[in-house]
Amino acid sequence: MRKMRPFVLALAAFLSAGPVLAQSRNLEPIPAHRDSDLRVFFSNGKNLSGIAALKQMQKGVDFSLWIAGNQFFAMPEVLGRFQKAHPEIKSIGLITLPPGKIARAILKGGWTYQGRNFRLRPDLYTTVDIAHLKDLKKAGLVSRYFIYLHNQLALMVAKGNPKHIRGIADLARPHLRIFLPNPVTEGIMSVYGEDVLKNHHLWKKLTAGKICAGCFGAPNVYFTRVHHREIPKAINAGRADVGLVWATENVHAAKKGYSVQGVSLPVQDSLKNKVNYIASILKNGNHRHNAQIYAAFLKTKEAQTAYADYGFAEASGADFTMRPIP
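Given the sequence above, the corresponding structure tokens read:
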């Protein structure tokens, strides 16, 4: 335990920074310092973020998109190409938070951020967990979906891999400082990572029976507070040795110049043939026509190659078929 104390103290200081959010019983709270997940893109090149973006979304945009957060780094390119192809859509509201949290916000009717309430709804929602769509279907908000993208799991380690981490089995080593996506709101863990860890008989060991966010499972295992994008920052800063991430995050971290590298996993652990990003148009969206235009754009080579530039695996053929939510 003494060896883990610097890890615990550093994380406690890191996580205690920032003001406590005002809560609303009716709306979904956005954690502090998430301005980069709240954006509005204008076709003239102007952008807004944070409270200003939420205010603009409330005032009105031409199209509103709430998506699984790990696409955040690809979206300026994807939406730039979309607006170039469709100049009539001059403003796009974008929220990139964990899909479970977004689903709750849709059901509640909006968000609370920095003590303010924003009653909003998207036109199109994407997730990696069909269960989220099932919840929205029960509320009468969606009925069909399609697959538009793929990804796979990987490990992230410090540059040079000083701990000689080769695969999932190495996460059993008790001296490693491990970051995992939280299993509460992050689909990467609740839908995919949990099964992989269970297949290696590591789930109980690493979680110590705790299903939580911004907390420790085992003494050497920390669950992210909001995003698994906290993992590259922690490894780059020397606060962690290894984390479970999407393969795309290794690509993005390399582009940012982080002192990290990826460790590829065999197909039974990467789940490269199983990870699906799914999209659904909201029945009560304000801009259903524009949502349909964007859904059609996602199926084009222009959109797919934009995502592929950031390490995502392209969808094709039958993936794009509209299908009923079970």
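The chain has a mean pLDDT of 91. Try to locate this feature in the token string yourself.
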